[in-house]
Each structure stands twice: as structure tokens, then as C-alpha cells.
Design a protein that fits this description.
The protein has a domain at about 15-45. The protein contains 4 helices and no strands. It has helices spanning about 1-5, 10-20, 25-30, 35-45.
């Protein structure tokens, strides 16, 4: 499941940069639950820059 969740990160980054929306708003637009949002947030923090 972790790999599936990491697949959302590029889309979220694009939405945040090009649409100027927050991480939470991007997750909502993608239909992610609050728990999925929390998991993605943790995964995003773990990824190297």
C-alpha cells in the first residue's frame, strides 16, 4: 500500500505548485481520506529532496 500512496505525491506536488492549493486541498481533490492524507504526509517527510 505504501507504494500506491507514494504514487500520489507527484500529482499532489503538481497541484500545489501549479494550482496554488495546499497539501490538504490537493488530497481532498484526489478523494483521499484523512487517514490517507496523514500517511502521505508522513511519506512525504521521509522522501529525500
Amino acid at each position: 500500500m505504501e507504494q500506491t500512496m507514494t504514487n500520489y505525491l507527484p500529482a499532489i506536488d503538481i497541484m500545489m505548485c501549479h494550482l496554488g492549493i495546499s497539501f490538504e486541498q490537493a488530497c481532498e481533490q484526489l478523494g483521499l481520506s484523512p487517514l490517507e492524507q496523514q500517511n502521505l504526509s508522513l511519506l512525504q517527510e521521509q522522501q529525500p529532496e
